[in-house]
Amino acid sequence: MSAIKTHYRTCNLCEAMCGLKITYQDKAVLKIEGDKDDELSKGHICPKAIALQDLYTDKDRLKTPIKRTENGWIDISWEDAFDEVAGKIKSIQKKHGRNAIGSYRGNPTVHNIGLMLFGTPFMQSIGSNQKYTATSVDQLPHHFASLMMFGHFLMFPIPDIDRTDFMLIMGGNPAVSNGSIMTAPNFSNRLKAIKKRGGKVVVVDPRFTETSKIASEHHFIKPGKDAFLLLAMIHIIFKENLATQKHLEGHLKGWETIKELVKEYSPEKLASIIGIDAVSITELAKEFANSKTAVCYGRMGLSTQEFGGLCQWLVNVLNIITGNLDIEGGTLFTKPAIDVVGMSKMTGNTGSFNRRQSRVHKMPEFTGEFPVATLADEILTEGEGQIKMMVTIAGNPVLSTPNGQHLEKALESLDYMVSIDLYLNETTKHADIILPTTTGLETLLYDLVFHQFAIRNTAKFSEVLFEKEENQRHDWEILKELTKRVSGKENPMNLEQTLDYMLQYSSYQEPKLSVEELKKHPHGLDYGALKPQLPKRLFTTDKKIELAHPLFIGDLKRLNSKLNQESEKEFPFYLIGRRHLRSNNSWMHNSERMVKGRERCTLLIHSKDAETLSIKENQKVTVISNVGKVQIPIEITDTMMQGVLSIPHGWGHHRKGTKMKIAEEHAGVSLNDLTNNMRLDTLTGNTDFSGTKVKIEV
């Protein structure tokens, strides 16, 4: 055996970008621990890090292409697989048109630079407008607000958590996620540091979360009512003359419009709708506005609801009118080493909205993609432009998108399907060919996206730890080959060369950046805390922030229609999702170490609701919505707001025809067998997950 060695890399299993120190011998991992010298994470890791080892050694992981036949799955060569897939793309488009090919890319795409850089040319070679991603079941409202207010769909204001005096967290659980659209490893200790320096942390959520346990204060809120709370707070801030333009004076449009429209949203009028009393709302607004620095952070619970677009707009408005945008301790824009936003000045790709609409439900396009809520019906509805073939990349939409059973039926009806994926899972089992990629430890890594959302400006490159086997292919190699065969054009550069080319344009050139230079710094490079950049960073034509975009103002009519809405008696409970520290995507359930211990796919219910229904701990009940039903064990807890239930996302591994042994043994149920694909934020097209109405049958 060879000597024991050490490898440093970034964990790519969530957004936190934690630095890892991996001790290994030959091709065996001996230990994974936090890298104390990592410039961003400083030694912090969560339990998910060890899943990199489990993924690498997983016997269920595919390594060579497989093809579905009448007699089951068979191995085929890469050459035959590429020939067949490229041939099917061409023949189906020749017969049915370019838009007969649909594509879906899952969220692991943005954790993988190979899929990021070589996926776009592949999509362009297909030339179809039927493109779908996990964006519209996640953060689309963030993109929408950024495009409409700042002129660029990736201009996300990032909370300056290490310097703020007051943090308001709405619909997020960063103690578990370590920040989402806010890359902040060791988030829990960063929160504790706010309190230690005399600051305050407030959480607003229908569940008393892991983050709430660390916070100074928690308020329960009825699901889907966050926009009303934000409007009520903004009402108080203007009423009490606490609003200020500060350094942004002269760079804001619509100030008077906002001031006027919030007059009708008093806490007294909205308290019963929100579920928080008027006095608490008023005090929260005053505390936020009077803090030396403050930041409001709204995440999944705000985005994945009926008014996600309004919520993310109002979060920005709240930060702006209190003088907390583009200041230290408030929210700031990043300037990473590879500045995707800054490079848009060369590419011109700042985002788009509603240039065209989907064929079936007339849903708006956003930056070249349609909402995934319409995907199943685009496959099932006959006529010109019907999707006949699907390409899925690193995604499991049967479990992660609304009404998964409806999508299953759609996938079964396709003429052809190809999946670029590691596993035979609930989605890829419908494919005709699966093209497996290498894993995290077998690939190089540079986080294009999450450096863009990090709380500090850093750069880090991770080299390959274990060389791939001869019969394996990297994701970028698969995409590059398919692009060549479909378009007839060959890209002369590999992944490392492409990354090297992008580093040439970095604004940080001390030292001069290149892949070779980054290799000299295995713990990363730190370019410091975020700094003010406005108005220069803005992409609006007049270099002003659009506070009162007509699309948001117009959508308030839809929100106002809920003011006098009667409660739904047939389905009396709200259902929300939740995330566990040991889980991010569904494939992690095939790691024994990630799923061991007590059962985590349970239905959380308040003790008084359980008492009313005469149900006991661990009792199995049937949860029913207007699109489906599941059976799930009960977990009684007063961490839930009364009238609200919770099921974690990403489970539902009971479906036949998959090959994920450990996941099947811990099957759970899929939250998305209950969600309705026609329930969405009609402003942005994002799916409404947070507040599905359900009932319980014992």
CATH architecture of one domain: 3-Layer(aba) Sandwich
**What is the CATH superfamily classification of one domain?**
Dimethylsulfoxide Reductase, domain 2
CATH topology of one domain: Dimethylsulfoxide Reductase, domain 2
The residue-averaged pLDDT reads 96
SS-based class:
alpha/beta
User: According to CATH, what is the class of one domain?
Assistant: Alpha Beta
Distance between the termini: 59 Å
Give the overall silhouette.
globular
Strand content: 15-25%
Unreliable spans? none
Helix content: 25-40%
Largest sheet: 7 strands, mixed
Number of strands: 28
User: What's the alpha carbon Rg, rounded to whole Å?
Assistant: 24 Å
Query: In order across it, which strands form the biggest sheet?
Result: 5-4-19-18-17-6-7
What do you see in this structure?
With 698 residues, the chain is α/β, with parallel strands linked by helices. Among the domains are: 41 residues, no CATH class; 205 residues, Dimethylsulfoxide Reductase, domain 2 (3-Layer(aba) Sandwich), CATH 3.40.228.10; 132 residues, Beta Barrel (Barwin-like endoglucanases). Helix content is 30%, strand content 17%. It has a seven-stranded mixed beta sheet, with helices on one face. The chain has a six-stranded mixed beta sheet with strand order 24-26-25-28-23-27. A four-stranded parallel beta sheet has the order 11-10-9-13. The longest helix has 19 residues. The mean pLDDT is 96.
